[in-house]
């Protein structure tokens, strides 16, 4: 399965159960094809903290890796510290702009240092508002912008009771 280079630099292993023993082969494959890997899908592969920590140094060294999907696995908050520390190093994950950690065992939110480190790597997206900034801009919008004449409004909206 892992013998030819990934088409278009995208390796999709989602849905294939991976064990700690599989990490050695996966690391070797990723190192061999490091110059072309830009996307790695490891969603729903039953990836554990131990297996991910074996994989982390190899992932961090991939020069073109932009997207990393780790959703739907058995990862816990314990790996977030290692991943965050790795993201803080400018030499690690030099091209990454997107990491999916949804639907894991107990990762319900991401630490601020993780988000800040990821945001620094996305200069084009770096100007996007955070949730807090977006909420503040919504609060400063004038309320009368929906329609000029509220009496003529019949747009199907239900007024509060």
From TrEMBL:
Q: Which InterPro entries match?
A: LRR_dom_sf
Entries under SUPFAM superfamilies matching the protein: RNI-like
Q: Where is this region: Disordered?
A: 131-161
State the protein's name. Answer: Leucine rich repeat containing 75A
